[in-house]
Amino acid sequence: MFQDITLEQLRALQDRKQMTIIDVRSPSEYRDSTIPGSLNIPLFDDAERAEVGTLYKQTSVQAAKDRGLELVSAKLPVFIRQFAEIPGDKTVFCWRGGMRSRTTATLLSLMDIHVNRLTGGYKAYRKWVMESLESYNFKPHSYIIHGNTGTGKTALLHRLQRNSYPVIDLEGIAGHRGSIFGQVGLQANNQKTFDSLLLEKLITLEHSPYVLFEAESMRIGKAVMPPFMGRQKETGTQLWIEMPLESRVAQIMKDYRPEEHQEELLTAFRRIKSRIHVPVAAEIDRSLVAGNFENAVLLLLEHYYDPKYDYTSLLYGESEKVTFKVNHLDEAEAAVTNWLRERHPESSSRGNWKLQV
After folding, report:
1. What is the model's pTM?
2. Which one of the listed residues 21, 94, 144, 167 is annotated catalytic?
3. Which is higher by pLDDT, 1 or 97?
4. Is 94 a residue of the active site?
5. Which intervals hold domain Rhodanese (predicted)?
6. What is the sign of the dihedral through the CA atoms of 138, 144, 149 and 153?
7. pLDDT tens digit sequence for 128-164
C-alpha cells in the first residue's frame, strides 16, 4: 500500500535522497500553480475533469465516480507506464489530498509501484508557503542593485549567480522585467507561483552572509513582493551602476531583441504614450513602426525612464550607497565582484561561494 506523508516529512525526504514529486491534477491546474520542481501526470485532463465535476454537482457522487472509473480505465496502461519510467522515490499529490491522489496511489500500489501521497495536497503546500512568508525572518544582509534602465542589472545578477554568488532573481521568479515592457518575450507568473519560487530560493540562501537582488517595485508583473522584501530593499546597502547612455541602449537591444517582438513593444508603448511629451511620443511611435528601435530606445530613456529613475534615487537617502561608474556590463561585473571580495574576504574563493548557496 501507499504511505501518506506530511509536507514536513516530504521536505525532509527531499533533503536526504532523490524524490520526484508528481502533480496528478489537470494540466490547467498545474500551469496555474504547483509545487516547484514537480512533474505533471494528470489523472484527468481538463475536459475530463470538467465532465466528472459536472456529474458530481448536477447528478450524484456515484455517477461522477462511475464516469471517472471509465475514463481512467481507458488510459490505465499509459498512465502506469509514465510512473514506472520515473526512477527513485515518488510522491503524488492533488488539490487537497483527496480522490485523485488516492486513486493514483492505489492503482500504482496494485502494480507494485510504491509512492507516497502528500497529506493535504497542494492546498497544504500553499498554506505553508503563505504562513512562512508572513513570518519569514530574513537574516542575510542585502545588497540592492540599482541603475538606470539599460545598465544590465538583471544580466549582472545572472552573471553573479552563474559564479555561485547568492542572488535572488526577482524578475526571473516573477517572469517579468518589472516595467511596462516587462512581459515582452516572457510568461509572467501569478502570485502563487511567485510566492513558492521566492520561498524556495530564500530557504536555499538562508545561511548566506548576504544576498544580492535588484531594486524592484513591490509589484513585479502579476505578483507583489512580501513586505519584508520591501524593508530589505530600503535598509540594505545600495549598489548603484552608472553607465553611458549609448551603452545602455546597446544593452537594451541585446536584452529585449525588439526586432522579434515589434507588435508587443508597440502595444506596450501605446499604454504609456500619453505620459510623454506629444512630439517625442509621436517620434517614438514612428520609430517603432519603422523598426528604428535604437532611436526609440534612446528617446524612451531620455524622456521617460531616466526622469523617473532620478526621482526614485531620492528615496534611499539614509542607506549606505556605493556607486560603480562603468562603461559596459563586463566592467560592472568586475567592479561589483572585486568590491564583494574586499567586503567579504572570508568568502573570496569560488569554492566558498558554492558552499553558501
Report:
1. 0.89
2. 94
3. 97
4. yes
5. 15-134
6. negative
7. 999 999 999 999 999 999 999 999 999 999 999 999 9
